[in-house]
Amino acid sequence: MAYDQTNIFARILRGELPCDTVYEDEHVLAFNDIRPLAPVHVLVIPKGPYTSLDDFTADAGPEVVGHYFKVVGEIARKAGVAETGYRILSNIGGHGHQEVPHLHVHVLGGRPLGRMLPDARG
Ligand code: 5GP
User: Fold this and answer.
1) Whose CA is nearest to atom 24 of ligand 1?
2) Nearest-CA neighbor of 7 among 38, 43, 60, 61?
3) CATH: 3.30.428.10, 2.40.37.10, 3.40.50.1580, 3.40.50.300. Which one for 8-109?
4) Mind listing the pLDDT tens digit for each residue in 89-122?
5) 104 among known catalytic residues
6) Cα dihedral sign for 29, 97, 34, 106?
7) What's the pLDDT tens digit per position in 31-79?
8) Coil vs helix vs strand at 42
């Protein structure tokens, strides 16, 4: 799927829309989710034009991918959730229920988060 330059995170990266930045470097931006689902809910995005973890891991080099995940861990530690535990989550495409077509990892924590998914097995 071609990258959509009009998506909301592309607009944040271009400075057209504001965000509550918690971390920024040359390759990565992290900011608080506008509708937090937990006391800590940070979105971590690469600055490159990647739609999801699928094209990112296929097309970006190992240093870029590695740096991105180093930053995810660093943000969790800085947010104070590494000791109590937290969840990272990245929705990909239709079945993943991805709403914004720019790769993002959610860092969620600050309270017990329950099971990973509703358990349809009962
Ligand atoms: P997805 O379902 O694509 O994994 O999640 C997209 C996330 O982006 C949602 O948690 C939503 O609250 C968040 N979001 C959508 N628009 C904005 C925005 O303009 N600013 C911020 N900070 N978060 C947004």
Assistant:
1) 34
2) 43
3) 3.30.428.10
4) 999 999 999 999 999 999 999 999 999 988 777 6
5) yes
6) negative
7) 999 999 999 999 999 999 999 999 999 999 999 999 999 999 999 999 9
8) strand
H/E run at residue 88? strand 86-89
Task: Give dist(CA 37, CA 41) in Å, integer.
Answer: 6
In 3D space, the residue among 78, 20, 23 whose CA is nearest the CA of residue 47 turns out to be: 23
Within 6 Å (CB) of ligand 1, which residues are found? Answer: 8, 17, 19, 31, 33-35, 43, 91, 97-100
Please tell me the pTM assigned to this model: 0.97
Burial class (CB in 10 A: 0-12, 13-18, 19+), 7: middle
